[in-house]
Recover the amino acids of this structure.
């Protein structure tokens, strides 16, 4: 069953990749002189608040003669893209010198609107032949120290430099004429004439390599040095931790095995100590086993989702400004992997002798989607109140609900039925006693929270350098393309998480504390809490984000991402601890 499910998912991923390729080849991007090249205005917004973006014509710019909205894919809408036809005409190989777009008399309200935008460092984004364009709409002259002395100017003249190779557009750059400005400092009507200039230049860069310039920023030598330093730092952590764990397995466990064998030969009635003493309790099923099984199911699904996303990234599907590709992949693959969650949760729940598997399946389906849905409802309401492009249209919400209803839920149920019928039994090397042993008093540092702090610190230290680049890409304007390095860091994270959880589980059992099931899950997932703590540091120390909307989006969606991290790494930590516990108890004779 598992092999068939994996094969189906692989086919689905290949279909998704083919769909991406097909969507990018709708136009061959070849033009003749005088042909109209598509230019779309996308959005405007404060430069330091990447989630707070608005429609381009929410500001009173010149409107084109034929205003048309471009139909967008699901991922583009989720990304906040709202493409409309731009007022500029950039026909292929046709140069223009100071072409006037329109003449407007800005009212006091429009002047105030533009001034507020300039004050917040608003930028605009457009797409010309699928190439991104950015620019600021104005500038602030801070002549005096007092903000009341600042002067605000709106750029009136935009200069386009377009590079071509034969019949292809290769590159486009935008410059604003700092001398052609409109003074917006005072609340009065202002007459403004908007102009633009177009220059064409030939280049030898091929069409296939025209997107390379956008990925070069993350591949510059000094950036790569930092990335490699991150990997070396992580590898050192892995080597030290591996050596530490190997010492435990080779020395401490070896001594334990020799001691227990000697005790068995010398005196059968001798009192047992250490982790062998609790062999009748170590495989006692945990409390809240339905929640535990649901957590394992959701964590396994998120792990599968992460692996498939990495596969698509490594084969080059998420090249810079492939609009909405990542969001589309996340939605589709999450829906297709819901069967994994259902199968894993229900099969493990039945192994723990659970009876109400239907309730367990419902809990599995809501464990991650529930908090995500509630967070989305709140943040989408905030975006609607701000009239931002992050607010999803009703039609898009209907599409997502249909995907969840017609794809996610049926696959979750099918996986659950398959898990229930798998008839797998929990493999415990030792019989469980009827009554649990009392756990001896333990020092404070052996409590759950101190152990979680110790467990999360090492995995977090292995990834924190790379986290800055990821945050700067997701919550800023940097471009991240070194997915191979990110994948190596991810593998290191998995290894460190598994090793540290196994080590802490051994110390817990050696202290005769047999309640290790939830402890191993919580210790494995504690890295997610460290990542969320890093969010606080990044927001206040490394970014210039501000405002209620941007703050709520940042902390709201990062809470969901860190919660998913918690479930995924918690599942990994428990699985590693379970393999370890089974191994050591198979190695001794349990009565």
């Amino acid at each position: 069953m598992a092999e068939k499910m994996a094969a189906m998912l692989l086919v689905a991923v290949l279909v998704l990749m083919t769909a991406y390729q097909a969507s990018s080849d709708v136009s061959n991007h070849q033009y003749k002189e005088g042909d109209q090249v598509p230019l779309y205005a996308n959005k405007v917004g404060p430069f330091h608040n990447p989630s707070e973006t608005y429609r381009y014509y929410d500001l009173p710019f010149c409107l084109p003669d034929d205003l048309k909205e471009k139909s967008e894919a699901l991922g583009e809408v989720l990304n906040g893209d709202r493409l409309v036809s731009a007022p500029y005409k950039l026909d292929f190989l046709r140069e223009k010198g100071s072409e006037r777009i329109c003449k407007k008399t800005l009212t006091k309200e429009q002047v105030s609107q533009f001034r507020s935008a300039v004050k917040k460092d608003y930028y605009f984004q457009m797409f010309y032949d699928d190439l991104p364009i950015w620019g600021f709409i104005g500038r602030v002259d801070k002549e005096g120290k007092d903000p009341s002395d600042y002067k605000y100017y709106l750029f009136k003249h935009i200069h386009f430099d377009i590079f071509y190779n034969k019949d292809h557009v290769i590159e486009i750059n935008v410059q604003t004429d700092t001398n052609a400005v409109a003074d917006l400092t005072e609340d009065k009507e202002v007459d403004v004439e908007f102009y633009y200039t177009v220059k064409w230049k030939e280049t030898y860069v091929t069409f296939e390599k025209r997107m390379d310039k956008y990925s070069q920023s993350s591949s510059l030598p000094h950036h790569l040095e930092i990335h490699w330093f991150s990997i070396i730092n992580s590898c050192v952590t892995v080597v030290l931790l591996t050596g530490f764990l190997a010492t435990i397995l080779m020395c401490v466990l070896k001594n334990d095995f020799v001691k227990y064998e000697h005790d068995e030969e010398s005196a059968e009635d001798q009192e047992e100590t250490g982790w062998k003493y609790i062999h009748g309790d170590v495989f006692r099923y945990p409390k809240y086993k339905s929640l535990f099984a649901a957590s394992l199911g959701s964590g396994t699904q998120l792990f599968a989702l992460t692996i498939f996303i990495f596969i698509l990234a490594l084969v080059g599907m998420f090249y810079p400004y492939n609009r909405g590709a990542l969001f589309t992949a996340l939605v589709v693959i999450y829906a297709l992997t819901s069967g994994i969650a259902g199968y894993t949760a229900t099969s493990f729940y039945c192994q723990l002798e659970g009876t109400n598997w239907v309730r367990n399946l419902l809990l599995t389906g809501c464990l991650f989607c529930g908090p995500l849905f509630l967070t989305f409802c709140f943040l989408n309401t905030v975006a609607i109140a701000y009239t931002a492009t992050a607010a999803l249209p009703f039609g898009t919400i209907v599409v997502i609900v249909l995907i969840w209803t017609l794809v996610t839920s049926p696959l979750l149920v099918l996986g659950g039925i398959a898990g229930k019928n798998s008839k797998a039994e929990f493999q415990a090397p030792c019989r469980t006693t009827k009554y649990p042993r009392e756990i001896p008093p333990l020092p404070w540092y052996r409590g759950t929270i101190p152990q979680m702090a110790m467990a999360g610190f090492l995995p977090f230290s292995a990834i924190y350098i790379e986290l800055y680049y990821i945050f700067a890409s997701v919550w800023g304007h940097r471009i991240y393309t070194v997915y191979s390095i990110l994948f190596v860091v991810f593998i290191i994270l998995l290894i460190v998480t598994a090793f540290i959880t196994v080590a802490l589980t051994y110390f817990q059992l050696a202290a005769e504390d047999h309640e290790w099931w939830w402890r191993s899950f919580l210790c494995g997932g504690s890295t997610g809490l460290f990542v969320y703590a890093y969010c606080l540091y990044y927001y206040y120390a490394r970014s210039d984000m501000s405002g209620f909307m941007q703050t709520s989006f940042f902390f709201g969606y990062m809470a969901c991402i860190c919660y998913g991290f918690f479930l995924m790494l918690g599942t990994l930590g428990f699985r590693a601890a379970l393999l370890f516990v089974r191994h050591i108890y198979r190695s001794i004779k349990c009565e």
Remarks:
- Residues 221-266 form the longest helix (46 residues).
- Confidence is low (pLDDT under 50) at residues 13-26.
